[in-house]
């Protein structure tokens, strides 16, 4: 995948019909707030009014290591990445608990973990591109061929989930140090340069002031090194991304191309959606933002995509957790458009233009 074709827009007539149905429900005009808007969006992406129940919701976690993690940009050691992949498989991570509570299927894929992960089911490593991606302030994250491979893998993963019945896809991340390349993707997507890194650098897992200063330095050096290449989204992934982030980009493009909506998570998920929109314009219309992360780059990317997050709980876990936490809101929106009586069912009590 280099520059993809634009993605067709969700079904506008269904959006109009859903808005009409919403306006006719036995509730005061506008009383359902964001839930009403969500129901309208779900009708548009499904091409159906009222929208179908979301019975098959799936999260894919893209895991990988990042060379920058050895340069003091995270509060935790890189060995945590492989250990957490094992924890997802065992069903014991934070996101597994939420997914269990909300009926979301979870898969974790190793795109670039710096460990062979022996003993895990072979599907986990089926799309592996390499062991660890390059330290972006010193070298490219990937070769051009690896970027293409990771993008294609992510796209294939989405296509398979859709063929297998997924009605809503969520994207999650695991990789110590990944808030640094993700912030770089956002900077590149917004046309920001080495002088603007304070706007995109956040504390990630909770780095102290010295860690934040190192992160800014790493980001500045990385953007400087990438130079003009940051103007091209695929080159951005090669220079500043990673195998796991590139796959997550391909996944969002693949879902949008297949006409299946995507519920986004925190910084990594949204940085990848921003990059997906650069590669395949129109992708963002198939996305909804699950939550707001405290990472400043996530807020900047959401604003660029025109997305307003559903939740703002101060969560900064990643893994897809903020997306999973928002699933009940999407199901609530479906229930309202399906199950609420119409004002007209109440009799002649309300003037039709009320
Ligand atoms: C135990 C643990 C579980 C996690 N689950 C997600 N992350 C999150 O934190 C990391 C990003 O933050 P930074 O860039 O500061 O390293 C990623 O692995 C992300 O998925 C975790 C981090 C840790 C330590
Ligand atoms: O925004 C996120 O998802 C996030 C923030 C900090 C650490 N891990 C993930």
Automatic annotation (TrEMBL):
Source superkingdom: Bacteria
GO molecular function, one term: nicotinate-nucleotide-dimethylbenzimidazole phosphoribosyltransferase activity
Reactions accelerated catalytically: 5,6-dimethylbenzimidazole + nicotinate beta-D-ribonucleotide = alpha-ribazole 5'-phosphate + nicotinate + H(+)
The enzyme's E.C. designation: 2.4.2.21
GO biological process, alphabetically ordered: cobalamin biosynthetic process
NCBIfam families xref list: cobT_DBIPRT, PRK00105.1
Entry protein name: Nicotinate-nucleotide--dimethylbenzimidazole phosphoribosyltransferase
Organism per entry: Nocardioides marinisabuli
């Amino acid at each position: 995948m280099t520059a993809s074709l634009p993605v067709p827009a969700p079904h506008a007539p269904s959006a109009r019909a859903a808005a009409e149905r919403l306006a006719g429900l036995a509730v005061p005009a506008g009383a359902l707030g964001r839930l009403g808007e969500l129901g309208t969006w779900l009708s548009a992406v499904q091409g159906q009014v009222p929208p179908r129940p979301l019975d098959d919701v799936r999260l894919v976690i893209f895991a990988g290591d990042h060379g920058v993690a050895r340069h003091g940009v995270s509060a935790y050691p890189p060995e945590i990445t492989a250990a957490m992949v094992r924890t997802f498989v065992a069903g014991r991570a934070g996101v597994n608990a939420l997914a269990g509570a909300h009926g979301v299927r979870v898969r974790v894929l190793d795109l670039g973990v710096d460990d062979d992960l022996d003993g895990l089911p072979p599907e986990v490593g089926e799309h592996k591109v390499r062991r660890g991606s390059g330290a972006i302030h010193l070298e490219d994250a990937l070769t051009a061929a690896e970027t293409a491979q990771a993008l294609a893998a992510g796209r294939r993963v989405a296509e398979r989930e859709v063929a297998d019945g997924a009605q809503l896809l969520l994207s999650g991340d695991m990789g110590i140090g990944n808030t640094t390349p993700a912030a770089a993707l956002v900077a590149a997507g917004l046309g920001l340069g080495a002088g603007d890194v304070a706007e995109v650098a956040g504390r990630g897992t909770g780095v102290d002031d010295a860690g934040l200063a190192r992160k800014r330095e790493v980001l500045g050096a990385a953007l400087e090194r990438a130079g003009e290449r940051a103007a091209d989204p695929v080159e951005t992934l090669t220079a500043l991304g990673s195998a796991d982030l590139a796959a997550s980009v391909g996944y969002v493009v693949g879902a949008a191309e297949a006409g299946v909506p995507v519920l986004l998570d925190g910084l990594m998920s949204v940085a990848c959606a921003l990059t997906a929109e650069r590669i395949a314009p129109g992708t963002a219309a198939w996305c909804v933002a699950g939550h707001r992360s405290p990472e400043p780059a996530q807020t900047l990317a959401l604003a660029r995509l025109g997305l307003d997050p559903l939740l703002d709980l101060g969560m900064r876990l990643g893994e897809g957790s903020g997306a999973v936490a928002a699933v009940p809101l999407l199901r609530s929106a479906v229930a309202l458009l399906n199950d609420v009586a119409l004002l007209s069912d109440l009799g002649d009590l309300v003037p039709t233009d009320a």
